[in-house]
Amino acid sequence: TMAGIIYEDFLSNYLKKNVAEKHAANFIKLIVVILGVVSVFIVFFVEKLKGIAQVATSLGGMSSGAGLGLFILGMFFTSANKKGALYSALISLVVMTWIVLGNQISLMRGELTYTTVPTSIDNCPFNVSITPIPIKPPSDDVFILFRLSFAMYVFVGSMIVVIVGLIISHFTGPNEPKDVNEDLISPLVKRFYYKKTKVIEKEMYQIVKTSEKESEKVSFEQ
Q1: What are phi and psi of 12, to 5 degrees?
Q2: Taking CA atoms, which of 59, 92, 186, 216 is between 20 and 30 Å from 46?
Q3: What does 191-219 look like in DSSP terms, one character per residue?
Q4: What residue stretch is flagged as signal peptide (predicted)?
Q5: In terms of Cα–Cα distance, which of 54, 157, 63 is closest to 103?
């Protein structure tokens, strides 16, 4: 499946339009072989990592944090512009990649270890099996950001996007609420941005109506 996606979405755009099915099949077979070799080498790397679930969560948090931050930035802040969104997302990805790699390298070197809470059920009235929960002990030998829990990666990544995005938007020309589609803003904060606009529109509507009535009155008198 992955080979077909790579061929159709990437390689086919750079090949001749009328590629024979035989050649296309050969390309896909070659991609399958390459992916298989890469997967085999990844096994040797993964076996040195401390827990596949943690690695999967960490890698997902690298990009999920940036995605969540973009949604928060767009839904709650009308001043955010496209430059702020783009550069803050890139910065978040770079920072979170650095943190994740630093954490995993520290684990592989043994500089960072995880301890587990006691799981003994001696003298316990209930016969329950408890899965050990990893707890990160404090360590001064590892950089503080590398000791960050992998469960916090999404939160940290999203906050980087929001904070950096607002700063960049401020210095590159923030958007005005009137320039942003009101339907794209969360109802929780919409009234704070558009309350003044609604009042102005109401006043203008009343002025127009008053002018129309006066015009009709003058026309009737004439």
Answers
A1: -60, -25
A2: 92
A3: HHHHHHHHHHHHHHHHHHHHHHHHHHHHH
A4: none
A5: 54
Question: 42 vs 46, 49, 133, 166, 185, CA distance in Å?
Answer: 6, 11, 26, 38, 43
Q: Break the chain into its structural domains and give their ranges.
A: 1-48, 51-112+143-180, 187-221
- On whether the CB atoms of residues 165 and 84 are closer than 8 A, the answer is yes
Residue 116 backbone dihedrals phi, psi, to 5 degrees = -115, 150
pTM: 0.60
The residues, ordered by sequence, that sit 6+ positions from 62 with a Cβ below 8 Å of its Cβ are 93, 96, 97, 100, 153, 157
Dist. CA 26–CA 44, nearest whole Å: 28
Q: Do 86 and 45 contact (CB within 8 A), yes or no? A: no
Sign of CA dihedral 21, 27, 31, 36: positive
- Rounded to an integer, what distance in angstroms lies between the CA atom of residue 82 and that of residue 217? 50
Q: How do residues 126-162 score in pLDDT, each as one tens digit?
A: 655 555 555 555 456 778 888 888 888 999 999 999 9
Structure tokens at 132: 């050990």
Q: What is the pLDDT of residues 31-77, one digit of tens each?
A: 899 989 988 887 777 666 656 667 777 878 888 999 999 999 999 99
CA–CA dist 212, 208 (Å, integer): 6
